[in-house]
Amino acid sequence: KNRGGLCDPGVSPSLPQYGNFVDNLRLYVKGGSGGMGLPRLGGQGGKGGDVWVVTKEAVTLKKVKDKHPQKRILAGAGVNSSVRALKGDKGEDQLIFAPPGIVVTSDDQKVLGELNGVGEKVLVARGGHGGTFHTGYLPSRGQARHIRLDLKLIADVGLVGFPNAGKSSLLTKLSHAKPHIASYPFTTLRPELGKIVYPDYRQISMADLPGLIEGAHVNKGMGHKFLKHVERTRQLVFVVDVCGFQLSPKTPFRSAFETVQLLIKELELYNEELLSKPALLVVNKMDLTDTELKLKELLGQLQDPEGFYHTLPKDMVPRHSVTFKDVLPVSAATGLGVEELKTCIRHTLEQEAAMESKELCRERLQALRRGTLMMGGMAYL
Predict the structure, then answer these.
(1) Coil, strand or helix: which one is 328?
(2) pLDDT the model gives residue 12
(3) Residues of the chain with pLDDT under 50
(4) DSSP SS3 for 3
């Protein structure tokens, strides 16, 4: 049974405020203009600076956005030729540092480059040529255009959970097919992928991301390999065992509530931005005995998680709580709640896409207005 959250058809939800995680970014880039030549001495103006996108570790698209709030990156102009320096110096290049695993495209959907490894780069705006004898000593302007940086996604939805939560079984149930293995160039880990197919033929890709254990943020187990994959999904589905979890006889038993907080803590310690992704919570194994009471207890704890933090070890308490779009009890073994989960996944993804589309339209309208104002100013002059 759905518990009346975002995906309950009986509830009229307002548009959710999605967080600060950024998986795509549109920027205006312009190469620098060339420098003026010097006719009387045959001097050559310096070339304008170029704009490059360069991949670098520990960078996120949100950090790029924060560094360039106006979303305008302009390279330096070439230096004019002078008596002291007949050949003008080149203008300063601008480097846009971005995370590995991105696709750089122009506004007309042309792929400018795919950057998978650290240190790879692509030229996105070329500087203008300096003035020479052949151009009447007049320089040319730098190239100007809008570009998009898109984080390469392995799937629309990522299943996040500790071992034995039933992620693989759930993926099989949702996709009605045995998950296949796919390899991606920016990591050596191979997540299991499946596709949810809806009656209207809409398809949503889902990845079971194995390897998360306590301490993953410090690279225990598959640690960082797992967490890098989490960054490359649009939406997270936390999967927990309603009866709790214990990795081995040597590790402590964790209740369902503790398991949720541990998952949040591991993601938070790796990259706080991950907690801004839209997230659902799936409470699995509801076919077992006495699970309704355990579910009721978990729902009560999730309504006020801070009120129960005192029951957790200090190093397990997350700095930020996660407000799940919905909490869905399911059984991967019997199929209980699976159809409701499918509906909910699609609903939240479509809401996010609608918000992204609205934001893109707003940005383009602002750019158009700026261009109109500049043209008006030039006409006035």
Answers:
(1) strand
(2) 32
(3) 1-4, 9-19, 177, 179-189, 216-223, 380-381
(4) coil
Task: Sheet with 51-55: list strands edge to edge.
Answer: 94-98, 51-55, 121-125
Q: Decide if 204 contacts 344 (C-beta within 8 A).
A: no
pLDDT of residue 207: 86
In this structure, are residues 260 and 240 in contact, taking their beta carbons and an 8 Å threshold?
A: yes
3-state secondary structure of 108: coil
For the beta carbon of residue 240, count every other beta carbon within 10 angstroms: 27
Looking at residue 219, what is its pLDDT? 45
Q: How far apart are CA 99 and CA 64, in angstroms?
A: 9
Cα–Cα distance measured from residue 84 to residue 36, given in angstroms and rounded to the nearest whole number: 14
Q: Which amino acid is at 260?
A: V
Cα Rg, the chain, nearest whole Å = 26
Q: Tens digit of pLDDT for each residue in 51-104?
A: 999 999 889 899 999 999 999 999 999 999 999 999 999 999 999 999 988 999
Contact indicator for 148, 26 with CB cutoff of 8 Å: yes
CA dist., res. 294 & res. 300, Å (int): 10
Q: Reduced to 3 states, what is the DSSP secondary structure of residue 101?
A: coil
Q: CB within 8 A of 249, min separation 6: which ones?
A: none
Q: Does residue 280 contact residue 174 with C-beta atoms inside 8 Å? A: no
- Which of 263, 223, 261, 231 lies closest to 63, judged by CA? 231
Sheet-wide strand order for 203-208: 180-181, 192-197, 203-208, 155-160, 233-241, 279-284, 327-329
Give the pLDDT confidence score for residue 184 in this predicted structure: 41
Tokens of 358: 């609205």
- At 236, list the tokens: 């997270």
Residue owning tokens 């020479």: 132
The tens digit of pLDDT for each residue in 126-181 reads 999 999 999 999 999 999 999 999 988 788 999 988 877 888 889 889 986 464 43
H-state helical runs in 187-290: 223-230, 256-270
